[in-house]
Every structure is written in structure tokens, then in C-alpha cells.
Design a protein that fits this description.
Number of strands: 6
Order of helices and strands: EHHEEEEEHH
Distance between the termini: 32 Å
Largest sheet: 4 strands, mixed
Shape: globular
Number of helices: 4
């Protein structure tokens, strides 16, 4: 099993005119994915890929060959923020909604937390903590 998180590098860094909230959510996602990568063996994951996508390579996958797209102004636009999970059966799950991505990543951290003795939660931004607290995964809402 493998997962790949792709985020817009520019939005992650607060460029592109991205809202503060979106930048914080992207930072939360990367922090969660990095922690999952540290403990990937606990979840029996073969690999965790974190890709920071630049303008000249929108949506381009690193390892899992799936790309989400939307239609904007009658044009196909590749999503630069998405989470792809490959199951043991080879099926691919694609999450393109920011709330869904963060919830899935936090859910993985919650599963790791149940299996190890140390605390593996990450500090989330206020908007990220609110999303996760609504999902009832036991995330740390204190910043």
C-alpha cells in the first residue's frame, strides 16, 4: 500500500494569493503526511510520497499515476492538491477536497497513535483542528 500527497508548493508557502487558511491547511497536511511517513511500517505502508507541485508541473504525480482534474472556464485544469491512496488490491482512491484529505491523513495518524506508545499527533492550525474535531478523530485542537 502506498499514499501520495500532492500540494501546490506556492500555496503551501503563502504565494499565489492563497488564503491564510488554505496555506495553513496545506501545512497541516504536509505535517501529517511527514509523521505518517515516519511511522509507515505501523500502517503496513510501502511508501509515503509527499510532492510539492510547482506551476510548471501542475498535478504531476511522483509515484501513483492518478491525477484529478476539474473544469474551469470551459478548460480542463489539473488539481495540484490531492491525496492518492493505493490499496493492497491495487485500487486507487483519490481525494481532492481539502477537508477530506486532512481527515484521511489525521485518521491514519489516529490509527498509528492506537498502535504505538508515544504520541504521534501533530499540532494543527485552528482551521485544521476544527475540521478534525468535527471528524471526531481525537486530534490535538490546542495550538
Amino acid at each position: 500500500m502506498r499514499i501520495e500527497l500532492r500540494v501546490c508548493k506556492h500555496c503551501l508557502e503563502g504565494d499565489h494569493g492563497a488564503s491564510q487558511q488554505k496555506s495553513e491547511l496545506l501545512q497541516d497536511m504536509v505535517a501529517c503526511a511527514e509523521r505518517i511517513e515516519e511511522y509507515k511500517d505501523v500502517l503496513d505502508l510501502d511508501a509515503v510520497h509527499i510532492r510539492r507541485v510547482r506551476d510548471d508541473e501542475p498535478g504531476k504525480p511522483e509515484a501513483l499515476p492518478v491525477v484529478a482534474a476539474t473544469i474551469q472556464n470551459d478548460q480542463i485544469v489539473l488539481n495540484d492538491t490531492q491525496l492518492v491512496a493505493e490499496g493492497q488490491d491495487g485500487n486507487m482512491l483519490l481525494y481532492a477536497n481539502l477537508d477530506d484529505i486532512l481527515t484521511v491523513l489525521a485518521g491514519n495518524l489516529d490509527e498509528i497513535n492506537k498502535a504505538v506508545h508515544e504520541d504521534v499527533t501533530v499540532e494543527l492550525s485552528e482551521p485544521g483542528a476544527k475540521i478534525i474535531s468535527n471528524a471526531d478523530l481525537g486530534a490535538n485542537v490546542e495550538r
